[in-house]
Amino acid sequence: MQFYQTNFAVFAVINALLTYREYRQVEVVPFEKDARKLVQAHDHKAELKRFKRRFLPIYLLVNGADWLQGPYIYPLYKDEKGLAEEVVAALFMTGFLAGAVSASFTGKLADRYGRRLACLAFCVIYSLSCLTLLTNDIAILFVGRMLGGISATLMYSVFESWMVTEYNFLFPDEPGSTLSSVFSIMTTLNSVVAILAGIVAEWVTDLTGTEKAPFMTSVGCLVLAFLAITNHWGENYGESAKSHILDMENNVPPPKSTFKLFLKDKRLLALGITSCFFEGSMFIFIFFKFPALKFSHKLSGAQDDLPFGLIFAILMCSMMFGSMLYNYIITHHTTVTPTRLLICMLTVASSSFFIPVLFRDERVTFWCFCVFEICCGIYFPLMAYQKGKIIDDSVRANVYGLMRVPLNIFVVVVLSTTREGTQHRDLVFTACSALLLTAVAVNGAIL
Fold first, then answer.
1. In sequence order, what are the residues at sequence separation of 6 or more whose Cβ sits closer than 8 angstroms to the Cβ of residue 244?
2. CA-CA distance, 424 to 405, in Å (whole number)?
3. What average pLDDT does the structure give for the chain?
4. Helix/strand/coil (H, E, C) string of the chain?
5. Has residue 175 got a pLDDT over 90?
6. Confidence band (pLDDT; 50, 70, 90) for 23?
7. Would you give the distance in Å from CA 34 to the centre of its chain?
8. Residue-wise over 402-423: b if at least 16 C-beta within 10 A, else e?
9. pTM surpassing 0.90?
10. pLDDT per residue as tens digits for the range 261-291
11. Which member of 79, 152, 284, 320 has the lowest number of beta carbons within 10 Å of its beta carbon?
């Protein structure tokens, strides 16, 4: 227990110092003789701040609702509800399968009928998914995982699509580094929310005596997000119904299939493969990280239970460190290309899966997991920037959704083979390590 408390304190201090250093730096504004340009620059900054204030609180509420569930979704099924490992794997697999199926059409519907509407639908669907956990009926639990899978597809596509499209509309002449900075801020603040969510999740669980409590707290966050979206967000579209009708009236040929875009643009293909292998490995990591730590904890001879909420908070501290490291690299080392950074990150992530297979030490396993979360902190703003730069606004949500189809299928295939025991978990970790190295080769060859 003391080991994890010490790690949390160290990570918290490091992140606090880095945050202080990052925001203490005063931006030097060059002297401008033209007063009109000074006023325009000031108005532009004010508009950008308003945009961030309109988007970020809602984005963080939504992610907070998701993070609250992270530490206890597996223990709730396995320990409190007493389900077998195979049943838990089937529940997870159902969620990813639902995500894969829904990803084939939810993005296109969001582009056509509105991303704001899709965000509101997410809040409702995810709330219903949480509420299904109040029962022990296995059929309802499976329905809940289906709703959760659909929610995940929406969360990872429509919110970012709304933000990027709105940003491009409001700031068409803004340099790409500004959008990259927005993504970095999103990941950093999201990591802070995740850390707090891990602590709150453990607190409400201890307070109520049930692992269902974090999920009910999550519903409260989703209700607040629904109200905020309703009051503060406007609608934006991609391939809207109106434009589709106009195209038909003017005999404009229909747009190319989104699948053909992946085949034609090798950059999209590389992003799709990277997304599948890295995010797929991340979801496998979510499923296996606590069993791996529990096993190594037992090997050490310890008799006490692991502090899941605290461990989750430490891992999120690691992710926050990664996002600030990314921001430092793009700010101070502009010669480092996104492709080179992506390849380095994927290589390190690969090693963080393979080393715990070789060494059965609890501390080594835990620190490897921290390194992987640092890679996640670099990956998300880096990948978001790459997608924002390459994908067209008219099909953004659809492409984002379709990129999750192979990702979900990959996770389903892995979880469908889940068995009790260390040997199977070692095989999965080794496979994830190999796939991440494959992503390194693909990015090196294409990008």
1. 112
2. 25
3. 85
4. CHHHHHHHHHHHHHHHHHHHHHHHCCCCCCCCCCHHHHHHHHHHHHHHHHHHHHHHHHHHHHHHHHHCCCCCHHHHHHHHCCCCHHHHHHHHHHHHHHHHHHHCCHHHHHHHHCHHHHHHHHHHHHHHHHHHHHCCCHHHHHHHHHHHHHHHHHHCCHHHHHHHHHHHHHCCCCCHHHHHHHHHHHHHHHHHHHHHHHHHHHHHHHHHCCCCHHHHHHHHHHHHHHHHHHHHCCCCCCCCHHHHHHHHHCCCCCCCCHHHHHHHCHHHHHHHHHHHHHHHHHHHHHHHHHHHHHHHHHHCCCCCCCCHHHHHHHHHHHHHHHHHHHHHHHHHCCCCCHHHHHHHHHHHHHHHHHHHHHCCCHHHHHHHHHHHHHHHHHHHHHHHHHHHHHCCHHHHHHHHHHCHHHHHHHHHHHHHCCCCCHHHHHHHHHHHHHHHHHHHHHHHHHC
5. no
6. low
7. 43
8. bbbbbbbbbbbebbeebeeeee
9. no
10. 666 778 888 888 999 999 999 988 988 888 8
11. 79
Among residues 151, 105, 118, 155, the alpha carbon closest in space to that of 132 is found at: 151
Q: Which two tokens stand for residue 237?
A: 């579209």
Place of tokens 């430490």: 314
**pLDDT by residue (tens digit) across 111-145?**
889 999 999 999 999 999 999 999 999 999 999 99
Q: List pLDDT tens digits, range 384-439.
A: 888 888 887 777 878 888 888 888 888 888 877 777 778 888 999 999 999 999 99
Q: What's the CA gap between 355 and 350, in Å, rounded?
A: 9
**CA proximity to 99, closest of 403, 394, 439:** 403
For the beta carbon of residue 377, count every other beta carbon within 10 angstroms.
27
Q: Are 198 and 313 in contact (CB under 8 A)?
A: yes
- Give the distance from CA 291 to its chain's centroid: 22
Question: Smallest Cα–Cα separation from 297: which of 372, 360, 384?
Answer: 360
Closest by Cα among 169, 58, 67, 213 to 120: 58
Residue in 392, 228, 234, 211 with CA at minimum distance from that of residue 305: 211
Q: Name the token pair of 162.
A: 């709304």
Task: Tell me what pLDDT residue 332 has.
Answer: 80
Whether the per-residue pLDDT at 16 is higher than 70: the answer is yes
